[in-house]
Amino acid sequence: MSSIRQIQSERIATGARAHRNRALVVCRHHVLVRISHWLTIPLLLGLILSGISIYWASPIYQHSPDPQSGIFDYFADAGIWICAHIRWLHHYADPADWVYNHISLGPFMLAFAMRFHWLCAYSLMLNGLVYLVGLILGGGWRSLLPRDARGVLQVTRYYLGLPYAILARRRQTHPGFHTKYNPLQRLAYFSVAAAGFLSVTTGWAIHKPAQLSWLAAIFGGFDKARVWHFWLMWFFVVFVIPHVVLVIADGWDTLRSMITGWSTRFVRPEVSDHEL
Amino acid sequence: MSSKQNGAELKSARRSALLQKFQSTLSERPAEPIEVEPSMLRGWTRRNLLIFGAGALATLAVGGSQLPREVFERLGLDPLKTGSDDKWLLNKALQLDDDVATALYSQHHLVPTYTKSQITPLKNNYNGATPDPDYIPGWRLTLDGLSSGLTVSLDIGVLLAHHQIHDQITRLVCVEGWSAIAWWSGLRFDDLLHAYPPVSQAKWAHIESSVNLDVNGNPDPYFVSIDLLTAQHPQTLLATHLNGQPLTVEHGAPLRLLVPVKLGLKNIKAITRITYTKDEPRDYWAERGYSRYDGI
Q1: For the whole model, what pTM was predicted?
Q2: ipTM here
Q3: Would you tell me which residues 91-150 of chain A have a C-beta closer than 8 angstroms to some C-beta of chain B?
Q4: Phi and psi (nearest 5°) for B239?
Q5: Domains of chain A by start residue, with CATH
Q6: Phi, psi of B226 (to 5 degrees)
Q7: pLDDT the model gives residue A11
Q8: A137 three-state secondary structure
Q9: How far apart are the C-alpha atoms of A242 and B281, rounded to whole Å?
Q10: What domains are there in chain B, each with its CATH number?
């Protein structure tokens, strides 16, 4: 500990070059941000799996019951379709339950799924507070505010064009920014935090529609709040896929910074883009 | 230059300074780098990896211990063949949630009411056997645990003649997630509590039903617990009518509980007996892993 203090007291001015054998690092993420980031993974997974088990009891999206099977749930239809079209699933015992057996804790376990959902939901709310405290103490909240709509378009265009550029073996340069995150990252991380907040509030609206009827009214009533809650779940799923792909593509420094906090990559305002 | 102009310029300068200050508060601060030996950075990384890895394993172990056997079996695993079925952490979470629901409850907070045009179809969600309507002509409501020490038996005529009938159009919310808006009429539970006061220490009502056969016709008695604070809520009715018509057997003829501050499963049909108690009585669904309080 004392050695760290010693080093910190000899802070080097921003932009200065490190000594040959030494590394220049910055603290990229506050420890509370790192802890809450990793805890979000099991909590969201638990919430989604138990949430779909709860959804099973009364699906939002229903059609009129099939005259023969009595099935009215699109997720059951999807399971039947999957088992009919994938060869090694032809003999699956309960095709109508296939989706629930694979992306939830399972059908016929409403009471258990609700208890599991409450455990994860209260933990997620606590985790969200830890994240906010970490953002405030570390000053990281400033890097999350979206403020550059044109930049978002620039970066989006870059990523949309990237698969074609790779196929065509054409070099494409990433737009440069002098900030911790690029504008698209800022929008994405801000939205995922906002979606977390909305998931919690829509959750309360459908959990306590009598005592918190004003909250349900904000989302258009009890039934609409259920629809919000359902689609917010898909927002997290959609966020996670590019998030993980890009972290792998970006390399060890980015992943390490979310574990240890330290990063050797940081903004050096005096240095031009080429050197970065 | 007039002093008026001067003042305006000063004002706009002050405004732009304020704006700049606001923008700089929101704008990113450059990170301050520190110089470290690469070996030290490796040491920190190793230490943090170990700490976070241990945390991940602990989370997996605690989370996994709370999952039921069926989930492992579905994955083709059953590592805890002799493990305990006590899900202590889940029970704690359910208790916390019930405490929150109890704290949210207020006798003065009324649930939203709707207009007749907003009424939706209401299904009979009970999959057991609907009782034979033969019980209706001889039906009586038995009250026990009264301050008088007596057991009172009432017929529907007495209930309807001696109490004011209230109408309300409220939402019935099922634990499964569906809901229905219906028009209910009946007497207030609170009026019955005044007419036949419970023993002074009573905090609970245990309510039994004549809907008591399962899908194969075997005995499956239904009973719920209701806290007296909820029973005293002005919108808690002992309902006799649904959408202006006397209750059918499917909806709990001749008298059912209508408690819009609770989940549908507490809205017990075809009430036969109410017993007031000091201690929390048994509840059908609480014994099957659901909440005991079910406040919404």
Answers
A1: 0.90
A2: 0.90
A3: 101, 105-106, 109-112, 114-116, 118-119, 122, 139, 142-143, 145, 147
A4: -85, 145
A5: 1-28+261-276 (no CATH), 31-260 (1.20.950)
A6: -130, 130
A7: 41
A8: helix
A9: 52
A10: 38-83 (no CATH), 94-288 (3.90.420.10)
